[in-house]
Fold this protein.
Amino acid sequence: MIECVLNDFDIDQIASSGQCFRFHRVGDKSYDLIAGTHLLNIQQNGRTVRFDCDEDEFNAIWRPYFDLDADYGRCKAAVAKRDIYLQNAVAYGGGLRILRQDLWETILCFIISQQNNIARITKCVENLCSLFGEICYNKSEQVYNSIPTAERLATCTPEDLAPVRLGYRAKYICAAARQVASGEVDLEAIRHMDYARAKAELLRLTGVGIKVAECICLFALHHIDAFPVDTHIRQMLDAHYPKGFPLKRYKGFAGVMQQYAFYYELSLKD
């Protein structure tokens, strides 16, 4: 068990932020999280956060996954005092962090996310993993399923994926999986590209448009200048930034500001 005292970290906010769809709430501020073939229980009490893993696993996987070495206080302090909207958004979602997720998992999840809500995306991802993912066991012999590989999904037809209830997205997933499995789109190469090149390469994938590519760049590749614009963010921009969001002010961490705004917009829709 690793215990840390963390600033700018709220596991409830992170789990419901729409970045990752493999958090499972198991208690008050307690979650099981599946990432790759790893299962982590994470608990929070105030600023104290407990990660149920050893030090080697924590440093190799979870410290970078939760971006724990980044100073989010610096990002928050940079918000213009006169920007009341963004000040409110930061105050509301001040425990958010930009996760560093697996690239293929993020591609799958955000193809599924199109014209969808968080609850339904989570269910679709869980169904996909249960039916096509690898069966895994942790040290406590808990059973769970990993995200299915591109190679596994490349053998599937949209009809095979029907039980997952993906709708029109099933054909996109099958096609994107074939592109990745064949090497037509090289994920290892994309991991080493700059933001502009990575985004352009991701747009070659079937089912990946500009918004989805931006989400993948932000939540998997950690290009934190990425600024995905979905319906919520478009409405926010129209209402509060009719001349455009001040991206230059937040150069180097615009995606962090996007996440604060997105999470705040979700709360306003509840």
